[in-house]
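Structural prep section.
Before we set up the soaks we want a predicted structure of the protein with pyridoxal-5'-phosphate in place, mainly to decide which crystallisation condition to try first. Input record follows.
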Amino acid sequence: MAKDIAGLDRLSKEAADLFRRDSQVIAGIEKLRFFPVVVEGGEGATLFEAGGRKLIDFSATWTAAGLGYGHPRVTEAITRAAKNPGGMGLSIANSSAIAFAEELLAITPGGPDRKVYIGHAGSDACDVALRGVRFNSSKRKIVAFEHSYHGGIGLSMSVSGVHVDTGATEPDSDTIFVSYPNPYRPPIDDPTPEGATKASLAQIEAAFRGGEVACIIVEPILDDGGLVVPPKGFLAEIEKLCHSYNVIMICDEVKVGLGRPGLLHAFAHDGVTPDIVCFGKAIGNGFPLSAAVGPTELLNGPTAAALLTTAGNPVSAEVGRAVIRTLIEDDIPARTKAAGELMRRLFAELDSPYIGDIRGYGLVTGVELVSDRESKQIAKSLTAATIYRAFELGLCVFSVGPNVLEITPPMIISDELIERGVSIIGQAIEDAASGRVDPEAVAAFSGW
Ligand SMILES: Cc1ncc(COP(=O)(O)O)c(C=O)c1O
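Run finished without errors. Recording the tokens verbatim:
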């Protein structure tokens, strides 16, 4: 008999059985797992594990469940649109997609002549933004960042530093990768946040100077690359360079945009107006919906070059409308601002010797784990064990980079769940550091 997956004996029988079935039938190529979780439902910021245990969710499934699980307005929109769908895609124009595009344009700053590409996932939104620029420009080169993430298909994948790092794809041959400024780990020759920004901007300008760069694609926080929050003003400096060298600025808001950053848009922290903005995850509250908003001249053709048959279907579009309405009417950015401040204060109060850095804004928080604060040595296995232990204690949290806890709960999470969740992580770090987590069980889940 084949050896069982380590750690399943600690789960309920229902959860363990489902997890074994999952491993029999669902392709590994689309999995990134940190512990053997199987859920059967969810409400707000809580997930219901098979077998009945409740889990606090500090992941929002990589921020996709922005408004949490089973949000009443989202549920109402899905039900209404599914009962009376106006077609199932954009070859038959439908009122829901039109209204969604109008409403998204209204909340996204930019020029008067813009269009909305409606897609299914952050990956295709970024891919189409990049392709749209290339189709419509005499220039071909792209500037992207080392350790960035823009998607798992086509060009979005081959400009993603994270994929290039793992060898999952060849880098796009016309893409120049530059460093992203990391204030916690600045360059040796000028170890300050300003030094980190300067080094990065110098690389960007050197690339632009060649005159062949059509666009730059940037995340407002380098999230999957380790939740790196750049020094204030970094995006504004990029925008200036883009204007000077006539380069299109694409801002990838897929992971941290739309209410989560304590403002409606993360790029608004730097007061910039990118040429193209990509949205995903929270825009559909986890349902298949994404968008790229940008100049008509870049997104209007060639005809059908980015046609996905069911993109713009009315069910997804109505979900997007419900999300936008909720963000505005419930003033979600004000809530994420206050909740994020509480979150970071509570992490600071843990005063763990293994927490090297706590960073972020709104409800995006990175907690970087190190062997000690002095050396800042990356604590990769401690991070994996902490996440696994947190799951055992009743919390879902993921990591990015080798050693950063990505704390991105649904934006509607209560203060009480924030307090309980941070306390679980504090306990998990202690347990992991004192060897109370089974290494074999942790090793069964490779994470990144
Ligand atoms: C910044 C960013 N862009 C794009 C994507 C791709 O989104 P999706 O996985 O929904 O295709 C991701 C996914 O993690 C992301 O973090």
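Observations: The first strand starts at residue 39 and ends at 43.
Flagged for discussion at group meeting.
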